[in-house]
Fold each of these.
Amino acid sequence: MRHIFRCSKCSKYTMKEICDCGSRTIAPKPLKYSPGGKLGPYRRKAKISEYIGRGVL
Ligand SMILES: [Zn+2]
């Protein structure tokens, strides 16, 4: 798995530790499932769509 960094200034994702804009990048926290998290509702919705697509629901 490759490391991906995110610029703290322009929020651009890059593989480099220093962004093209010259700012230091930070490693975002790994995405993991958390119902209360920011991505919770979106991910749940995506999952439901997946089930619908498979004809499970
Ligand atoms: Zn930048």
Amino acid sequence: MKFKILVGVGVSLLIIAAGAYMHTDEEFDFADSTGEFNHLFSMLSETKAAYIGQNFSLPDADSNVPVYDKYTLKQRREKGLPLTYGKTREYFYGDHVVYLTFDDGPNKDNTDKILNILEKEKIHATFFLMGKNIEKNPDIVKRIYEDGDAIGLHSYSHDYKKLYRSPRAYTDELEKTEELIYNIIGVRPIISRAPGGTSGHFTKAYWRAVNDLGYIEVGWNALTGDADGTGRTAGQEVTNIQKQLVIRPYLNSHLVILMHDAVGHEATVQALPQIIKLLKSQGYTFRVVTTAIPPAW
Ligand SMILES: [Zn+2]
């Protein structure tokens, strides 16, 4: 079931590299809070995202900024540029590294509140956006991008019957959604998460179709339970994460937490500061999902 053509790289080297990036984050904060450094900040803010090369070369695996493509797939086809990075990429593993991820937005109430919390905590997260909701909230898409949080695709319709009819139906929604995002921020994401997850939905043909278009599929290995009935309240969501940290400590090299910011997920917004506090107290570093994200399991 798993796509076995990807390769990982050594762990220890990357842990050292992660330290170097934490230093860069501190520089951003300093410039951001000081009016006189506007010029410096505008220069630094350009490095808040990385872009894949024309030939689809990927940024360094230890880079902790969102990765985008300056072209849509349609433009790449027209220009005769490669559509994918190929069959292998490097993975980033660290020591107590966590990726906070939010699916199904953007949502006018919850997403802005989450962005405010992330800003206050001086950390970044990743948002897997749905085409339908992007159309309703383009201003929030812009804010996620400008804040330096990462954007991934999460289909257009989120309708399993339509989406999983065929690999082509699935990639058509990917392309439709990337165009919507491109029209708002001028770049397209190359990370993606299948609605409901790949398990039971993706055959080998789906994996091949997604890889042929250069997309990196992103799973999860921890969750607050905000969509499966086990995390109805903020307290339950925090407890769920607490338990998973104890049960599966070996995932700390790449903990990927699934949460939702769509309508009805106010409890997640409420739980978020406590979840961040818990992770910080255990020494976790927060990263955005990049092209070096390892398989979740
Ligand atoms: Zn979803």
